[in-house]
Every structure is written in C-alpha cells, then in structure tokens.
C-alpha cells in the first residue's frame, strides 16, 4: 500500500472556495495515524501553506513555489532555488507585465504591484497576505517565483513571449488558467518530490500523487501512482494519457479516492 501521499492544493485538495473541508481533513488525519506520510506540493508560498497544513491537522513535507522551496514537517528548509536576479528584473518590465497583476515570492514576503480582493479571498484559510511594492524597480534578489495573474488568453500571449525570450533558462508553467508562473530552470514539483522521496528512503512506487494543473505534470510523472482530478486542465490530461481520473476537488475527490484505496469507511 502507499506510504506517501503527495497532493496539489488548489483545484485538487481544496474546494472551489480554496478551503479545506472537514471530510478531507478527517481522512488525512486518520491515514496519518496509520503511518502514512504526506507531501503538500503547490505553487503557493511557504508561509501560506504552513497555515493550510495546520488546518489539515497533519504533519507534511511542504513543496512550495512549484518546487523552488522544500521544507520538512518541522519547518526546516531542505531546498531553495531562486530565479537569477537579472531575469527577475526583466520579468517585471512592461513587455511582460502589462495587463497582468504581478507578484514576487520571497522567503519571508509576498510582493504584489496592486491590490487584489480576489487574492485576499483565495488565501483566507491561512491568513497569509501580500505587500504592495514597486516591482518594476525591484533588485530581483531572493525571488523564488514570479507570478502573472490575468485573463487566460492574454497570459497565453505572455507565455509565448517568455518562452521566446528565455527558452529553457526558466521553468514556465500555468498553475490555473489565470495564473502563469515562472521559476528557475530545473525547478518543478517533480524534482522536489524526488528530493523528499530520497530523504524518506521511499521509492516512487510507494507514492500516490494527485493534481489538476499544468504545474502538476512533473509531480504526476514522478509518482508511481498518479491521479488526475476530473476538473484537470485539458493540457495536463493530454500530456498524461492513460492516467486514472478520479472525482473533482469540489466533491472531495482526493479524500474519497483515498478512503476507497485504504478501505476506510466513507
């Protein structure tokens, strides 16, 4: 049976209000008591995910900023990789940022270039919040992730420009249709999962993983038992032919699948 459960948050473990439901929290807490270990793998900021882990009520390794940061259940920093400062300065210029809401993730801060009630609402479960800053003139040091939020069609144009400019020197992916994310080359949830598996002395075959977004591709490719949410992004589904699809995030699909797999009462 699975020894490690790895899950994305938004669109996967969290409901459509971006919150933890009691059924999911209870499921994970019961599994933890039976000896199963957990990894939360998300594009969100580490300080944000600490709060969500507290709501879930389990110990878990945290893969955050799409793998740019890895923390132990005791909050020890295991791995960190930043975008080169010169690239961050380029990424914040009008050529890419116009028409978007721009964010930087640093170790101890979330910087944003304008107010967003949508983002405040999305992070209500953890209480984590942003600081408004002049990102176009930021020095670019210590940035784990650059995030563009906007209309999907516009972000597709931004993605095209970024790939033309940076090619393979940065990791560029969508976490949600309205969230385009940029990290250092080599960063991914999949690479981070490999680090956690090695740290725990586990094999990929002992891991089941759940995801819905394009930034979950490497995570699902790394885990021995990948699972797609029924609400998964079509580009992710197309990239993973034959991977089992389970229920949606809104119907607690991860928890229901785990209860069946571990023969727990529903």
Write the layout of secondary structure elements.
Blueprint: E1 4-7, H1 9-13, H2 22-33, E2 37-41, H3 46-56, E3 61-64, E4 69-71, E5 77-80, H4 85-91, H5 94-97, E6 101-105, E7 110-112, H6 117-122, E8 131-132, E9 145-149, H7 152-166, E10 170-176, E11 179-184, H8 189-200, E12 207-211, H9 217-222, E13 225-228, H10 234-239, E14 244-245, H11 253-261
Helix pairs in contact: 2-11
Notes on the structure:
With 266 residues, this protein is an alpha/beta fold. It has 2 domains: 4-80 and 187-261, HAD superfamily/HAD-like (Rossmann fold, 3-Layer(aba) Sandwich), CATH 3.40.50.1000; 85-184, Hypothetical Protein, Haloacid Dehalogenase-like Hydrolase, Chain: A, domain 2 (2-Layer Sandwich), CATH 3.30.1240. 35% of the residues lie in helices and 22% in strands. It has 11 helices and 14 strands. A hairpin with a 4-residue loop joins β6 (101-105) and β7. α2 (22-33) runs parallel beside α11 (253-261). It is globular, with a radius of gyration of 18 Å.
């Amino acid at each position: 049976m699975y020894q490690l459960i790895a899950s994305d948050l938004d669109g996967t473990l969290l409901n459509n209000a971006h919150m933890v439901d009691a059924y999911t929290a209870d499921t994970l807490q019961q599994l933890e008591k039976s000896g199963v270990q957990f990894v939360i793998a998300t594009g969100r900021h580490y300080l944000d995910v600490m709060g969500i882990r507290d709501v879930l009520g389990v110990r878990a390794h945290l893969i955050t900023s799409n793998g740019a940061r890895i923390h132990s259940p005791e909050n020890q920093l295991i791995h960190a990789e930043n975008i080169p400062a010169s690239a961050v300065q380029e990424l914040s210029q009008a050529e890419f940022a116009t028409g978007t809401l721009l964010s930087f993730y640093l170790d101890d801060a979330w910087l944003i270039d304008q107010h967003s009630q949508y983002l405040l609402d999305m992070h209500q479960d953890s209480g984590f919040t942003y600081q408004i800053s002049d990102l176009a003139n930021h020095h670019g040091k210590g940035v784990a992730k650059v995030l563009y939020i906007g209309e999907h069609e516009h972000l597709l144009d931004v993605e095209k420009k970024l790939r033309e400019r940076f090619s393979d020197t940065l990791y560029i992916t969508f976490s949600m249709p309205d969230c385009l994310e940029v990290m250092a080359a080599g960063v991914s949830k999949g690479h981070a999962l490999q680090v956690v598996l090695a740290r725990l002395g586990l094999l990929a075959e002992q891991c089941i993983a759940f995801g819905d977004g394009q930034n979950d591709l490497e995570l699902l490719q790394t885990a021995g038992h990948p699972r797609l949410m029924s609400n998964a992004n079509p580009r992710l589904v197309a990239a993973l032919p034959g991977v089992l699809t389970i229920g949606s995030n809104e119907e607690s699909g991860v928890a229901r699948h785990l209860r069946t797999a571990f023969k727990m009462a529903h």
